[in-house]
Write a structure and sequence with these properties.
Elements lengths: L1 H19 L6 H14 L5 H13 L1 H4 L1 H9 L1 H6 L1 H30 L1
Helix pairs in contact: 1-2, 1-3
Length: 112
């Protein structure tokens, strides 16, 4: 129960900071960064968060149902732009793989 409290507390703090920043970053992202920092600085014990985190991760598939319904609802729009979506997804995947491989090879050479 304490884990849910900490997660919601940092989420609320993150939303407050997001409002102060005029919504430049989503509050949930700011809150999770703050929770991560609190865990790294040992202000919050990982043992308190672990049970709630495991429950949320186990239920994560349920959180994607509304987005799946939204995709089905916008099916005609997606179908009209199908090839643009496929090409951009493929090109960005290849670009990320090439950049990651290149950076890994450079870093791997430096460490030897």
């Amino acid at each position: 129960m304490l884990g849910i409290f900490y997660i919601l507390l940092f989420w609320a703090i993150g939303n407050g900071i997001s409002i102060l920043m005029d919504g430049y970053l989503p509050g949930s992202i700011v809150g999770m960064i703050l929770l991560f920092a609190a865990l790294c600085l040992r202000l919050v014990k990982a043992g308190h968060i672990r049970p709630a985190a495991r429950f949320l991760l186990g239920s994560m598939a349920l959180f994607f149902i509304p987005y799946g319904v939204g995709l089905v609802e916008s099916y005609p729009l997606i179908l009209d732009r199908f090839w643009a979506i496929v090409l951009s997804a493929g090109a960005s995947t290849v670009l990320v793989l090439l950049c990651t491989g290149h950076i890994f090879q450079k870093l791997n050479r430096r460490s030897k």
